[in-house]
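User:
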Amino acid sequence: MKILVLGSDGQLGRCLKDQFACSEHQIIFTTRCTLDISDFNAAQDQIGLIKPDLIINASAYTAVDKAEDDREYAYLINQYAVENIANICVQLNCSLIHVSTDYVFDGSATQPYSEDDCTNPQGVYGKSKLCGERAIQASGCQYVIIRTAWVFSEYGNNFLKTMLRLGTERSELSVVGDQFGCPTYAQDIAHCIIVLLPYFQEDHFESEIVHYCGDKPCSWYQFSLEIFTCAADLGLPTPEVVKSITTEQYPTLAVRPRYSVMDCQKIFHKFKLLPSNWRDGLTHA
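Assistant: Predicted structure:
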């Protein structure tokens, strides 16, 4: 297959480069500098020249708090550009893998969210991502939407990198302990995408949404403790004290889901993909 990867300079895009290193497929990696998805006409022309069999959209507006003040651009990237990409896929008879988020849920659940549970995003980021999902579904293109959560890796800006940096700067840290989710190693998401590729060449292909995230739920506080345990094992500086605080003690512009744990049984039963072992991922990131 000829595969076009959008957003290859982000953490997932860079992990896809790693995972595709020995691929038999023809892979074209683009960044926002080489293919700007916010320029709809230019994107259509460029993708039309490439004529991919599959597009992997690893590009997104992910600044959760900034999105509250930058609403127009968040929707441009997460909804309207995605809609344009999906429509291009229809025109070219091309399939689409799109990455979405746990933030499409409101966090009021008490058990893991399945793909069929009602969505109710609370902030601009989650709302714009949900609109992107719906635009893909309405387009009629062949797609798989992968919802994931709390993504970290050795690349880019993420919670892991932030904790390691703060661990060198401060002797005491306070981390939110009443928001629960599933950390996910981006290399595992990239591997998940590669496992899905043969599915697009089957005659009985059915478009769908799947959940793929970490295997063990935790709070941000618990996640930070695991990070600092790994850091200490590597001889890296860590804070002397890490305290658990409440959401109210750490106000943010955007409302975060209190509980955004997702059920990954569907992707396991259909593709035999185990959830991301994020603790193992920490030792590699």
